[in-house]
Amino acid sequence: MSAAQTTTSTDVAIVGCGPVGATLAIALRHRGLDVVVLEKQPDIYHLPRAISMDDEIRRMFQVWGMRDLIDPLVTPLCGAEFVDTTGERLIGFDLPPGVVTPNGYPPMSIHYQPELDTMLRAAAADRGADIRLSTPVASVADTGDGGEGGVCVETEAGDVVEARWAVACDGAGSPTRTRRGIGVTDLGFDQDWVVIDIRIDGDESTLRGPAQQICDPARPGTFVPGHERWRRWEFQAQPGETAEELTAPAKVWELVAPWVSPDQGTLVRAVLYRFHAMVADRMRDGNLFLAGDCAHQMPPFLGQGLNSGQRDAVNLAWKMGLVHGGVAGDGLLDTYGVERLPHARGVVEHAADVGRLIDQLAGRVSHGVDEASGYGGERPFPKLTGGALHGDDEMVGTLVPQIVADGVYSDDELGDGFVVLVADDALTTPARWATLGAAVMSVGPERTGGHGLVIVRPDRCVAAVASTQAEAEAATTALFAALAID
Fold first, then answer.
1. What is the 8-class DSSP label of residue 378?
2. What span, in angstroms and rounded, lies between the C-alpha atoms of 210 and 82?
3. Residues spanned by CATH 3.50.50.60 within the chain?
4. Global pTM?
5. What is residue 252's three-state secondary structure?
6. Strands, E assignment, 374-449
7. Cβ-based neighbours of 291, under 8 Å, separated by 6 or more
8. Of 267, 284, 400, 414, which is least packed with CB atoms within 10 Å of its CB?
9. What would the pLDDT profile of 215-235 be if each residue is shown by its tens digit?
10. Fold of domain 7-74+108-185+278-373
11. Using CB atoms within 10 A of its CB, is residue 346 exposed (0-12), middle (13-18) or buried (19+)?
């Protein structure tokens, strides 16, 4: 280590202040942890990249008191479909205005990432995160064994941040992951696509329809109606085509000609991307954790890349909060990867299958992908398994339903810790939950899926259900073991 210019002590050092790093900073500050965020770039990236926010992530921003900040930045998606070259729907669904999921929000909303990033970074700073721009990181080294030690983060300028934990949110190429020797598993999807963003100059309602996967045997494509005036197209590169050819303005306008002409919009971005599918071999390495693209990468066909990274932030923050507060043991942090890796892998695999299904429905090649993997299909979204969960009921590992009535959101009454929802007056909440400061609420059976008692984690995930006192006690014992509480 070089001689330090300055040394700072904090609870968590975050490497990278993209949307995942900023979200994690917000979540950790909400739990009372001190945070230093180190970002190598001097400013927010000015062009759109991720564009989708699902209902679960909107719900988590509500938990952090940010519903009013998020709502103006998003536009609910009105549907999604696979279509042929004539625009005829092959499979898909519509989402009429006002449709919400059990999370209380539309299934998917669209945003303009530079606006979202600006808001997230400002919200993190407003909540007390120490954000340092133009600060590339040179190394992240553990200073002790497991939970007994910490980390030392050194910047390229020689400054040092000493922290209990560090989290790498430094993107797909993650220098931090590479330096720590954490491998990745390739899940076998690699395709080059040109991604095009155009701002509509006229009527904002232009091209305001469902998101489409265009099953064209000559060139598969994607269309996404973005937030406000933003629209996105993606087209699969064909053998022999170069980035220079596909991103040339004349070629771009040729590709989007069936939808829009140069006199109707402004070309903002055209770039060739490699759509890739991978997961890291582990998400914890001593006192370093991985989150976002450095832990998992997926093709964009489900709109779940950023959402998956923000799920990482949600999962890790409440666990670090309990360990930092001395309520739970360090072993709880081992459940982060146990829960997030299989879930992320399931989403990556599903997204890759959607990409394969485009080719398949276009008649280009048969991958053997069932149409249930497509929009509106019956392939279930992954839920959490293992970790700080107990039992095999279908509710366990999913978010407890949120009731919204007359503008009142039921999550707002749950607080920030564990909650025991009791629908059967004959059941008594096990006494150990009082030692954890868990809230106990009497509710109707619609909140518990018909169970007598439901234990809800701070991330609104159902940790366990019970219909008898013996089941409630057994669930409590198992969960306290997962929390590493003696």
1. S
2. 10
3. 7-74+108-185+278-373
4. 0.96
5. helix
6. 404-405, 408-409, 419-422, 439-442
7. 20, 21, 24, 167, 168, 169, 283, 309, 312, 313, 316
8. 267
9. 999 999 999 999 999 999 999
10. FAD/NAD(P)-binding domain (3.50.50)
11. middle
Residue 238: count of CB within 10 angstroms of its CB: 11
Specify the pLDDT at position 1.
Answer: 44
- Superfamily (CATH) of domain 188-277: D-Amino Acid Oxidase, subunit A, domain 2 (3.30.9.10)
Residues in a beta bridge with 35: 12
Q: Identify the pLDDT of residue 118.
A: 98
Q: Is 90 exceeded by the pLDDT of residue 145? A: no
Beta carbons of 268 and 198 less than 8 angstroms apart: yes
Q: What is the CA radius of gyration of the chain?
A: 23
Q: Mean per-residue pLDDT for 35-48?
A: 96
Residue 286 · residue 146 · CB < 8 Å? yes
β-pairing, 35-38 vs 130-132, is: parallel
Q: Which CATH class is domain 404-482?
A: alpha beta
pLDDT tens for 235-285 read 999 999 999 999 999 999 999 999 999 999 999 999 999 999 999 999 999
Give strand pairing partners of 81.
92, 212
CA quadruple 126, 48, 51, 122: dihedral, nearest 10: 0
For the stretch 377-418, pLDDT in tens is 999 999 999 999 999 999 999 999 999 988 899 999 999 999
The CA-based dihedral angle spanning residues 166, 170, 175, 181, taken in that order and rounded to the nearest 10 degrees: 50
Annotate 2-12 with b (16+ C-beta within 10 A) or e (fewer).
Answer: eebeeebebbb
Percent of the chain scoring above 90 in pLDDT? 94
Phi and psi angles of residue 190, each rounded to the nearest 5 degrees, phi first: -140, 110
Distance CA 422, CA 426 (A): 9
